[in-house]
């Protein structure tokens, strides 16, 4: 075989010795019609992080109470997105291999939220990890798109050997029967789903309540970010001089909220506190150049926050070898 390197290729191309696409060879195959596995991997120092896609939601623009039609159109144009009434919002989860622990951050929706979601188990398998290998699940908050993947459809633990870690304020809120009984009927369903998701872990003494901030697993620290929910928590992964802040639901629509940090989503239980946490996270990660990962940022949901005038812009990570 002749050696074939870049220099040889360029030389041959220059002398016309390379003929491309010769002949009528047509590769006919049925269209796949489905996506490839939703996985992306990166390193944070010596720690390996795998983004695992659970699927996507279509969020109506009306969920952003402060947004006006005059503002959303230009923001969608700027993001090269259609001026549609819905914005696409993925649901991401993250698998962290610290070297001696396998840690999931959030778990996706399982079957709770329809056919465009619930892909985490399939994508976790595609990453080469089985649920019984997972040691710890860190919960950012107890909404169904984050904790429903903790259980199988028949209510058994999806991660049979894992300890679940959640902020005490978050656990206390969703398991409080008095708060639940005062909530509107459709919101009560959220309480019931949250309680069912953590129950088998709590029943077998595998649920740890934490008070942010502090180290939860060697190399991973909880960072309180309340507002979206009472105990909403981010997790900072640090190794060597590198950091990744998995910030949960600080942003639901990247096209809107980096430019308009004030725009809380209707799901934010305290709109003003959520906006304050969002601004604090944007300022900190832009100033300190900390890479972020978000459950509803465009998959893999990893990138950097940069300042843009009085507001911010999201720069998604570019593919690179590990
Ligand atoms: Zn969410």
From TrEMBL:
This is MBL fold metallo-hydrolase. The keyword Iron-sulfur does not apply. It comes from Phreatobacter stygius. Belongs to the metallo-beta-lactamase superfamily. Pfam families: Lactamase_B (PF00753). Residues 90-296 form the Metallo-beta-lactamase domain. GO terms for molecular function: hydrolase activity; metal ion binding. Keywords: Hydrolase, Metal-binding, Signal, Zinc.
């Amino acid at each position: 075989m002749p050696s074939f390197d870049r220099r040889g290729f360029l030389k041959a191309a220059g002398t016309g010795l390379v003929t491309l696409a010769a002949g009528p060879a047509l590769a006919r195959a049925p269209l796949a019609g489905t996506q490839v596995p939703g996985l992306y991997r990166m390193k944070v120092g010596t720690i390996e992080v795998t983004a695992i896609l659970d699927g996507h939601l279509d969020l109506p623009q009306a969920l952003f109470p402060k947004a006006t039609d005059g503002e959303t159109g230009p923001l969608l144009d700027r993001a090269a997105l259609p001026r549609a009434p819905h914005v696409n919002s993925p649901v991401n989860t993250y698998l962290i291999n610290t070297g001696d622990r396998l840690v999931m951050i959030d778990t996706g929706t399982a079957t709770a939220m329809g056919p465009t979601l619930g892909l985490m188990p399939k994508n976790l398998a595609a990453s080469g990890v089985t649920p019984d290998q997972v040691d710890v699940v860190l919960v950012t908050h107890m909404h169904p798109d984050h904790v429903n993947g903790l259980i199988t459809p028949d209510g058994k633990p999806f991660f049979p050997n894992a300890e679940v870690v959640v902020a005490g304020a978050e656990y206390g809120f969703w398991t409080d029967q008095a708060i639940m009984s005062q909530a509107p009927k459709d919101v009560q369903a959220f309480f019931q789903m949250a309680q069912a998701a953590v129950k088998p872990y709590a029943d077998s003494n595998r649920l740890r309540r934490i008070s942010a901030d502090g180290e939860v697993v060697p190399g991973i620290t909880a960072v309180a970010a309340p507002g979206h929910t009472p105990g909403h928590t981010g997790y900072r992964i640090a190794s060597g001089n590198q950091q990744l802040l998995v910030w949960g639901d600080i942003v639901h629509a990247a096209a809107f909220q980096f430019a308009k940090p004030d725009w809380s989503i209707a799901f934010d239980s305290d709109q003003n506190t959520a906006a304050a946490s969002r601004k604090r996270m944007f300022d900190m990660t832009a100033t300190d150049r900390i890479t972020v990962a978000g459950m509803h940022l465009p998959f893999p949901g990893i990138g950097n926050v940069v300042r843009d005038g009085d507001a911010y812009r999201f720069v998604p990570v570019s593919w690179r070898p590990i």
